[in-house]
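thought: fold this chain, then report.
action: predict
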Amino acid sequence: MKLSTNTLTILKNFSGINSNLVIRPGNVIKTMSEAKNIMATATIEEQFPNEFGIYDLNEFLSVTGMFDNPELKFSDDMKSVSIVDGKRSVKYFFSDTSILTTPSKDITMPPTELKFTLTGDDMNTLRKAAAALGVTDVVITAEEGSGPVKVLVTDIKDSTSNAFSIELSDVERPTESFSFIFNISNFKVLAGDYNVAISSKLISHFKSTSASVEYYIALEKSSAFGG
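observation:
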């Protein structure tokens, strides 16, 4: 088996969410952060034959990156894999899956009140603004009625905090006021545009418009809806 460039890109992204990874038979891979506030799932090109666990995904990717054209040859007992390129190879041992952090079940989204598309450019701008201002809060907010929805980066604990904002377009919003709050460090998504749905139950769904990858990201408890 050879891993495609797209699959390697997804695995690198997943390593930023959790260094552990459990691969199950088939072509769907999933990961979950240690804090259980981010879950990601992707459909890839390859079909894995059996279940196995990787304790340090960054290490595994670094090992495969040693070779120009690596091929994975799994052992019959699925306890290890030989990463082979011509006459060069590495025998890499898998981890016991019972000690790794992995999603135990799929997330079922509750009803969502807010839907919009967040472009890759907007995501990059939000990250740059947060770094420049030295803040971590991302607030998606609107007043009661049918007015504009804005996404801010600010410090919600400081009433005098500087804030950067973007007005969102093509939004499906409720008439109630809302303030949905994220920590920007949880936006560990692949580059690109996303269809975003947010529930007042403090969970959001980010689905890529161009790749078979999606993320469930928890909101901060300080979020507010209506009232």
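thought: worth noting. The chain has a mean pLDDT of 95.
final: tokens above.
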